[in-house]
Specification:
This protein is mainly β and 144 residues long. It contains 1 helix and 11 strands, in the order E-E-E-E-E-E-H-E-E-E-E-E.
Length: 144
């Protein structure tokens, strides 16, 4: 298990927690109410900042139950938290449902998944190596 430092920025903040042992995501909860009319988006505050280890990133993912029950999901899913970011985690939510939704402090609205990534340098080349796929994309292997 990797330990991650968490800074509590609001007295109502809940430390991210997985619901079951072995779950990849840790729930993120709101510290302030947020009202979302149908089609509206809003920025939810978690009251937390994290110190992610170098070589990792945090992905802010939707919670399937919230999407199913209320039609509310993370708009820019997944939201990306870089390891060097030390500000408050905020969650960009959108209401795809037909009714106004009132989210309350303590409501779990997203999940944080911490994953490693490969750092890269982009090198300009006149040509790329040949592959079987080549330049085929957007369903080129599908049937008509």
């Amino acid at each position: 298990m990797t330990e991650i430092a968490v800074q509590v920025l609001h007295p109502e903040a809940q430390i991210p927690a997985s619901q079951l042992p072995g779950d990849a995501g840790a729930d993120l909860a709101l510290v302030e109410s947020l009202t979302l009319r149908p089609g509206a988006r809003g920025l939810g505050r978690t009251g937390l900042a994290v110190e992610l280890p170098s070589g990792t990133m945090g992905l802010v993912m939707p919670r399937s139950g919230l999407a199913l029950r209320l039609g509310v999901t993370v708009l820019n899913a997944p939201g990306l938290i870089d390891a060097g970011y030390r500000g408050e985690i905020r969650v960009l939510l959108i209401n795809f449902g037909e009714s106004t939704v009132e989210l309350l402090p303590g409501d779990r609205v997203a999940q944080l998944v911490v994953v490693p990534y490969v750092g890269v340098d982009y090198l300009v080349r006149d040509a790329l190596s040949e592959t079987e796929r080549g330049v085929g994309g957007f369903g080129h292997t599908g049937h008509h």
